[in-house]
Amino acid sequence: MKTLAIALFLAVAASGVFGAGEAGSPSPAELRIEGAQKVLQKQPNRYQTYSDLALAFVRRARETGDSSYYEQAGAAIASSLRIAPENFEAQQAQVDLLLAEHNYRQALDEARALNHRMPDAVLVWGYMAEAEAALGDYQQAEDAAQWMMNLRPGNLPAYLTGAELRQDWGDIDGAEEYFSKALQQTPPFETEETAWILTRMGRLLRQSGRPDTAEALLQKALKTFPDYSLSLEEMAALRLDQRLYPQAVELLEKRNGSFPSVSSRLLAARAYAGAGRPADAAKMYAEFEREARAQMGLSDDASLDLINYYVDYAHRPQEALRIVRLRIENRHDVWTLDACAWALYADRRYAEADQQMEKALAIGTRDAVLFYHAGAIEAAVGKKAEASHYLQQSIELNPASEVSETARRAAAQFPARGTWE
Amino acid sequence: MKIKPHPIKSRVPLVALTLTFLAIAAVTVPFVGPAGIKASSHREAPITALDPTADITDVWAFRSYDAYGHDTKTPSITMIMAVNPFEEPANGPNWFPFDPRILYEIHVDNDQDGRDDIVFQIRFSSQYQLPTVPIALAGFTSSTGGTAPGVPPQITDFANPGLNLRQTYTVTMIKHGVATAIRNSDGSPFYAVPANAGPRTMKYADLYAAGTYGETNDDISVFSGTVDDPFFIDLGATFDTVNLRLLEGGPPGGTGVPGVLSTSEDAANANLASDTVSGYAVDAIAIQVPIQMLTSTGRVEPPTSPHATIGIWASTSRPEESIRRPGYSEASHGLWSSASLPTVRNAAYTESPQEKDFEHFSQVQRLGNPLINELVIGIGTKDYWSMSKPVNDSQFASFDLDPTFVSIVDSLYSVLAPGALFSPPAPRTDLLPLVEYLPPIAAPGTATGPIADLLRLNTGVAPTDPSKASRLGLLAGDGAGFPNGRRLADDVVDITLRVAVGGVLAGNQCGSTHTTTCNVFPNNVLGDGVNVNDVDTDLATDGVTNLVEPNTHFHTSFPYVDYCPSGRNRRHIDPGEAGCTAGTGAPCPVQ
After folding, report:
1. What residues contact residue A279 under an 8 Å CB cut-off, 6+ apart?
2. What is the C-alpha to C-alpha distance for residues A131 and A383, in angstroms, rounded to an integer?
């Protein structure tokens, strides 16, 4: 199934069905911004257009990595609500913006209010699913995503929401299937969106040990939407897996040329370190830490990166745990649970780490780093068979992951499963 | 300027999709423009407007009767669901088969808890008898009995190869979790009656008779097929923002107020405005079940018994595209046992094949009363309502007790005929008997149950002689009619106008100060002027005798529905036509 889906996709991609962005031409979001602004010049009280403008600004933020567009989106939403205080489109755009800013709790509250008002609105179910999954309520997220699909079978947003959930559940083939279906439904002129989906698929395949196909997808993404920051970053992650550090450095320097993110800085630090440039690595780690700490209160992702940084690089488990406690107050998603377990492990609180890891694994996510963490924790609590199993899982899932060599060394300490007893 | 983070990496791009999804999302935007009464449930929700074979147009349930109003040999209830609105009988070459991918169901609640205790599941299969022939129905037999080479003989039974697209179906009764297959006594399958292509192709009446199965293993009768749409309404006037017509040309014969009937108009056993669905067909599933199989006590209860009233609804479901893949379990990927799995739906499920099958169907639509989703539920909630279970209908109580369409009609008449009509104010507790087990349908002492859109039927009420039945049912003192169940001839449009808009059951809640009795003129004579089902009474052009009863305009035995109009010779009665009732009688008004 998965082979067929990818083969079909690559055949379509090779045929040039997907549009390719041309250098200098306006992006899809820019076209929408321009169009909305023209309408508003003539009809300044058209509140629906302000909502369209807001969504276009959020889209532009993703195209460029420039989060200052969120400010403009917020202003457009405010204008729309000023003209028509109860208009659904603006309130929906407001939820969209909150999600883009990773303000999941507020987004969920507002999405639920909209859902109560208009339960047939498919996208609102999607917003709820996204927020619920991010907060770790996978049951509610599944229910919401299923409503999306049932209300309009085969709709594009439901496929994307479902793909993300399937990935969380560890159903990699299922996620790939849904990404492929979403891709088939994406109009060719939506170049950034096509590239986004391709990038997500590339990441999925890289993380599941299929680097060649991931490479092809990412190359296509970069051809479709040139210099796309998310694709550059993912391609750099692939190069890191391949231990091609100079190429990773090159990609990340290009990506970080404008609006670098916390995660792209962390990747760059790893790339410099791998490329034998310790001074640049140290400088980038410091830059990462400074930025991540500055943004920690604003971005959940920054705190996650920071926790792993303090455990794996800075060796400051107490600080990692302090940040974990802040994060886990609101979120119980798999990555928060994993980070918590890993920080506890680093602090030698193995039994607690084991409990947290059990919760993380129960969600079903299949990820080489997660499995490695699980293996290390199981070993620490003396569950050697389980440790061996998870370490093998980590290696088998992605033989080239960032933890693969460590996992192999650790696995060598344990007999293969089945011969332990 | 504050620099916000760039949390863009892992987001599902719904924001972008909002822009590309507008074509779909548009249907979710509230429709605040003109609203009015809709054709029973013909295309009433956005999703079923796009999915006609799953679109339930109407549900009927009544105590079965014969031509004299007597019970069937064993007193029984007839339940009918119709789907696929506005089938044009001339619309070959495929006509209107049931959808084999749909699970059609009729549900019965007999303990007043809003949940089904008995379910009848109907599934269809299609076969092609002549795969190289391009049309689904073909046949010819000359008046002398001759045939034409290469053309199948006229279709007179289900074995005829001219019934090229032939459908069989199964009926399963699930009672308290136990499934029983309903079987034809002679062992042959149940065949669905096809559309009536025309007199050359088939003898439709013969197929109708052959497709009426009364000899089953459980004394249950079944029928499925394409039949005349039993519903009747002036749809064009209704959808033009309740722009009802001046009947009989206004005074002195009429009241001069559109939508307000004179005494003679109200009493007419004829149509004074055109029945927009005349000449169109639907796919109907009918099932007749002994009463004692339906009541919780296993007996025919008297009408005063708190166990006599049951609730009925129909649903259509399609195989679900599950976000969590069917059969997928994360347990297969790890060491952990199922005991440690999170409480996620379908995780490592082990239901029986039947339960498993059911689990993966997604309800597309359900219908009980003929008006709730059409007139009461806001358009931004219709699909969600359609896919929800009746037992959860309390979440829609604000719609039920304050129907927007009532205030719209009230508002229109305040302009068109000032002072003539005052509807009761919300909350409309007088409408509760439609959604709860309450008198005058249920006997005092019956458990009220939750708010749930069910067609409630007091099975203890004896049938009415069809020649004396009133189209206004319970409102006219005919206790065997709507809203005590629903017979085919019950004029639910006029009843709904009078009950919902006129508030005739609301007591002294009308008038400008809401202290006047509601059951007075004009509240109790509201109507659209379509009083009967407009059906060709003799299908004369085809040489067929349609055995309709002159008062009800329907057949007097199971399955009661009328013959499918002839594809070749069907007629749709339009405004301005000389004969407004099947081409006879007074002309249909335009204004």
Report:
1. none
2. 35
Smallest Cα distance from A59 to chain B, Å:
6
Asked if residue A284 is part of any domain, the answer here is yes
What are the chain B neighbours of A150 within 8 Å (beta carbons)? Answer: 320, 362, 387
Nearest to B312 by CA among B278, B332, B287, B334: B287
H helices then E strands: how many in chain B?
12, 12
**Amino acid at site B420:** A
Q: Which residues of B touch A139 (CB under 8 A)?
A: 342-345
How many C-beta atoms surround the C-beta of residue B113 within 10 A?
A: 15
Put simply, whether the predicted model's pTM sits higher than 0.90 gets the answer: no
Q: How many domains does chain A have?
A: 1
Alpha carbon distance A15, A11 (integer Å): 6
Decide if the complex's ipTM is over 0.90: no
Nearest-neighbour CA in chain B from A279: distance (Å):
26
Contact B76, B117 (CB under 8 A): no
Q: Which of A96, A261, A299 sits opposite B15 (nearest CB)?
A: A96
Q: Is residue B379 part of a domain?
A: yes
Instruction: Identify the bridge partners of residue A216 per DSSP, sorted by sequence position.
Output: none
In chain B, how many domains are there? 1
Residue A177 lies in a domain: no
User: Angle between the A104-117 and A88-100 helix axes, to the nearest 10 degrees?
Assistant: 160
Judged by CB atoms closer than 8 Å, whether chains meet at A101 and B7 is answered as yes
**Closest residue to A120, CB basis, from B4, B13, B384:** B384
The edge-to-edge listing of strands for the beta sheet with B76-87 is: B56-63, B76-87, B281-290, B221-228
Query: Which residue range forms the structural domain that includes residue A247?
Result: 209-295
Does A68 sit within 8 Å of B1, measured CB to CB? yes
**B380 alpha-carbon distance from chain centroid:** 21
DSSP assigned state of B376: I
Residue of A nearest to B30 (CA): A118
Interface probe with A: pick from B1, B2, B3, B9, most Cβ of A within 10 Å: B9
Which residue range(s) make up the domain with B108?
Answer: 39-324+353-542
A62 with B11: Cβ contact below 8 A: yes
Note whether residue B21 is domain-resident.
no
- The CATH number linked to A248 is 1.25.40.10
Burial status of residue B10 (CB atoms within 10 A of its CB: 0-12, 13-18, 19 or more): middle
pLDDT in tens, chain B (591 residues): 333 333 444 454 454 444 444 333 333 322 222 233 344 566 666 666 678 899 999 999 999 999 999 999 999 999 999 999 999 999 999 999 999 999 999 999 999 999 999 999 999 999 999 999 999 999 999 999 999 999 999 999 999 999 999 999 999 999 988 999 999 988 999 999 999 999 999 999 999 999 999 988 889 999 999 999 999 999 999 989 999 998 876 666 778 888 999 999 999 999 999 999 999 999 999 999 999 999 999 999 999 999 999 999 999 999 989 999 865 554 433 333 333 322 222 222 233 334 444 447 999 999 999 978 888 899 999 999 999 999 999 999 999 899 988 989 989 998 988 888 889 999 999 999 999 999 999 999 999 999 999 999 999 999 999 999 999 999 999 999 999 999 999 999 999 999 999 999 999 999 888 899 999 999 999 999 999 998 865 565 677 777 789 999 999 999 999 999 999 988 899 998 888 887 788 888 887
Alpha carbon distance B336, B334 (integer Å): 6
Report phi then psi at B226, rounded to 5: -85, 125
CA of B437 to nearest chain A CA: how many angstroms apart? Answer: 27
* Residue in A closest to B330 by C-alpha: A364
Q: Compute the count of residue pairs across chains A and B with CB atoms less than 8 Å apart.
A: 220
The answer to whether the Cβ–Cβ distance between B333 and A364 falls below 8 Å is: yes
In a domain, A277, yes or no: yes
Is residue A247 one of the residues assigned to a domain?
Answer: yes
- Gyration radius of chain A over CA positions: 22
